[in-house]
């Protein structure tokens, strides 16, 4: 079954910015404009500020500039062929001493662009003392750019300038995402085919007349490619591709971008809630008896060891918890027993993985019968030291407390007879390895009552077998004798 999901994602979706829906004003051409009756001409200027002049006493300084506005517009030739332009508009109290207005726009890494709007002498004289408006021709800017806007008089009078910072819209703006080439990333829809372990990705609203790249990557500080990459050709009628995956990790992302230089990329990680995928890949070094796990994705988690109980719970082993986000988690000197498990905790959730559950036991305690007596033996595949203690489980309880323990040393592949006395119904033996740092306490429970009753019943079973065998033999002899007697009697009668 393929699950389809549509991802309406953009260039900035991966940096967490919220999309803006404000539509920008469209223009076809950029022109400088002045108030009706005010004749002005645009002249280029250069950002080599000359020394300012002291303004005359009759110039009302506070009221020269007011209502200064900075905005962005889009200059469009056709669909997906737009550019972002900055427009500055100001009102000023005109005076014959003000010959024009200089508007400069600068940014870090960008040469300052200045325009002078010069007024004719006639219009200055005619409109002196009145409020007029001036609007510069556009200056091309980039999305998400910090610019500094400076407005001053021509000639430049000291103290008669206005400076402010302005931030241009980001590519999160819906209008920019559809029309500005540097913001167009395409829209993605994906489906998961779990049986084939494939992602089918459809692309729409991509940059026209360009090929389109798709890949899978694992996101950390950067998104590192997994090696799965394909190109959708611009000639393809259906803009889709199939990307194989190995596991749906929470940091597995689908990334797409147009085949142009410095193209913006759309990146989406739809499986970020699949944290349980991280808890595999546990490795064990049997020579060093070391347990190793390394997260395939960055995650803040606590990793520890625990002891699996009969009721399914897992009791934390003391001093085993480690915090991890990146890098390996190593537990040295570990007893590889099936009841030893790893516990992964993220916030309020926990997952248990038991890497030795399907492995052969390195050691075990077995109950054998030697010459009519029950005997306990410890078999170990490695040289080890154990702690043993006899205990009795209470009815309805999983607790089994022991008051006395003793140590046993086991050689590799040599059975050790455990001289345990006091075995009774419900007796259990607590066993734990002492030569390692992390080991579970394993409970071995036996039923010697059943063993002894079985042993007592053995002679009875043997006697019954003898009696039955004897009866069968006697019955056979009797039947044979009767048959012979009948045959002999009939032969004499015939004579």
Care to describe what's here?
Helices cover 12% and strands 44% of the residues. It has 495 residues and is mainly β. The strands form 8 sheets. Strands 2, 3, 5, 6, 9 and 10 form a 6-stranded mixed beta sheet that branches. The chain has a 5-stranded antiparallel beta sheet with strand order 4-8-7-11-12. Strands 22, 23, 24, 26 and 27 form a 5-stranded antiparallel beta sheet that branches. The chain is elongated.
Write a concise synopsis of the structure shown.
The chain is mainly β and 495 residues long. It has 3 helices and 34 strands.
Helicity level, as a percent range?
10-25%
The structure class reads: mainly beta
Strand content: 35-45%
For the report, how would you describe the main beta sheet?
6 strands, mixed
Enumerate the spans where pLDDT stays under 50 for 5 or more consecutive residues: 1-19, 450-463
Number of helices: 3
Please provide the count of β strands.
34
Alpha-carbon distance between the two ends: 95 Å
Q: Give me the Rg, rounded.
A: 45 Å
Overall shape: it is: elongated
Question: What are the SSEs and their pairings?
Answer:
Elements: E1 2-7, E2 25-27, E3 33-34, E4 40-45, E5 65-78, E6 81-93, E7 100-107, E8 110-119, H1 121-127, E9 131-135, E10 139-141, E11 146-154, E12 161-167, H2 174-179, E13 187-193, E14 198-204, E15 212-219, E16 223-232, E17 240-244, E18 252-258, E19 265-268, E20 283-285, E21 290-293, E22 301-308, E23 314-316, E24 322-324, E25 329-331, E26 340-346, E27 349-353, E28 363-370, E29 373-380, E30 384-392, E31 402-410, E32 416-418, E33 427-433, E34 442-445, H3 448-494
């Amino acid at each position: 079954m393929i699950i389809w999901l549509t991802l309406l994602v953009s260039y900035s979706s991966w940096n967490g910015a919220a999309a803006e829906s404000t539509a920008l004003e469209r223009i076809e051409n950029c022109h400088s404009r002045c108030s009706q009756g005010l004749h002005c001409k645009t002249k280029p200027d250069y950002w080599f500020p000359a020394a300012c002049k002291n303004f005359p006493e009759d110039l009302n300084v506070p009221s020269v500039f007011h209502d200064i506005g900075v905005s962005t517009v889009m200059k469009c030739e056709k669909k997906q062929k737009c550019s972002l332009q900055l427009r500055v508009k100001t009102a000023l109290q005109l005076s014959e001493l003000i010959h024009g207005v200089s508007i400069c726009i600068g940014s870090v890494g960008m040469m300052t662009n200045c325009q002078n709007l010069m007024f004719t002498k006639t219009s200055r004289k005619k409109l002196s003392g009145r409020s007029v408006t001036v609007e510069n021709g556009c200056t091309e800017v980039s999305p998400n750019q910090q610019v500094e806007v400076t407005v001053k008089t021509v000639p430049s009078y000291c103290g008669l300038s206005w400076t402010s910072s302005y931030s241009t819209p980001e590519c999160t703006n819906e209008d920019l995402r559809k029309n500005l080439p540097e913001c167009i990333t395409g829209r993605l829809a994906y489906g998961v085919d779990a049986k084939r372990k494939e992602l089918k990705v459809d692309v729409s609203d991509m940059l026209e007349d360009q090929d389109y790249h798709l890949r899978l990557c694992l996101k950390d500080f950067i998104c590192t490619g997994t090696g799965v990459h394909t190109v959708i050709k611009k000639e393809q009628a259906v803009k889709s591709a199939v990307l194989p995956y190995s596991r749906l990790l929470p940091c597995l992302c689908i990334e797409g971008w147009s085949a142009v230089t410095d193209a913006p990329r759309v990146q989406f990680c739809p499986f970020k809630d699949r944290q349980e995928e991280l808890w595999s890949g546990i490795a064990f070094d049997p020579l060093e008896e070391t347990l190793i796990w390394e997260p395939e994705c960055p995650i803040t988690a606590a990793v520890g060891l625990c002891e699996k109980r009969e009721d399914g719970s897992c009791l934390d082993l003391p001093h085993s918890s480690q915090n991890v986000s990146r890098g390996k988690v190593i537990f040295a000197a570990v007893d590889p027993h099936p009841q030893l498990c790893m516990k992964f905790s993220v916030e309020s959730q926990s997952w248990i993985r038991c890497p030795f559950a399907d492995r052969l036991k390195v050691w075990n305690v077995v109950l054998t019968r030697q010459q009519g007596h029950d005997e306990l033996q410890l078999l170990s595949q490695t040289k080890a030291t154990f702690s043993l203690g006899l205990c009795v489980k209470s009815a309805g309880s999983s607790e089994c407390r022991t008051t006395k323990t003793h140590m046993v040393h086991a050689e590799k592949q040599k059975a050790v007879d455990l001289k345990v006395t006091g075995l009774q119904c419900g007796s259990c033996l607590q066993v734990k390895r002492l030569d390692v740092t992390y080991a579970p306490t394993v409970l071995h429970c036996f039923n010697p009552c059943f063993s002894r009753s079985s042993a007592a019943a053995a002679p009875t079973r043997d006697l019954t077998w003898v009696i039955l065998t004897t009866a069968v033999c006697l019955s056979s002899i009797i039947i044979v004798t009767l048959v012979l007697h009948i045959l002999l009697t009939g032969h004499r009668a015939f004579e």
